[in-house]
Specification:
The protein contains two helices and no strands. It has helices at about 1-40, 45-80. Helix 1 (about 1-40) runs antiparallel to helix 2 (about 45-80). It starts with a helix and ends with a helix.
Length: about 80
């Protein structure tokens, strides 16, 4: 049973890391869009404001994903590391 729990925890950790990577990619893309909007010779204030909100949501989502990965790493260590 402990080996099964360890395997399941490792799989869950891997999925969380993949999700975090995807969120980081989305954040990078959205920050790039925001930079382009701001660099426009005739910036659209409403578009910039909307994109700033998107970036803020991306950052919060990424932060939550990072916390999930940290938590799952602790679980993997607890379940999978041999006892001293």
């Amino acid at each position: 049973m402990p080996a099964e729990q360890c395997k399941a925890a490792r799989a869950k950790l891997e999925r969380a890391k993949q999700r975090r990577h995807g969120l980081l990619r989305e954040l990078t893309e959205d920050e790039t869009k925001l930079a382009h909007l701001r660099a426009d010779p005739h910036p659209d204030a409403a578009a910039i404001e909307a994109q700033e909100r998107v970036v803020a949501v991306d950052r919060r989502s990424l932060e939550a994903a990072e916390e999930e990965v940290d938590s799952l790493e602790g679980l993997v260590h607890a379940l999978c590391d041999p006892l001293p």
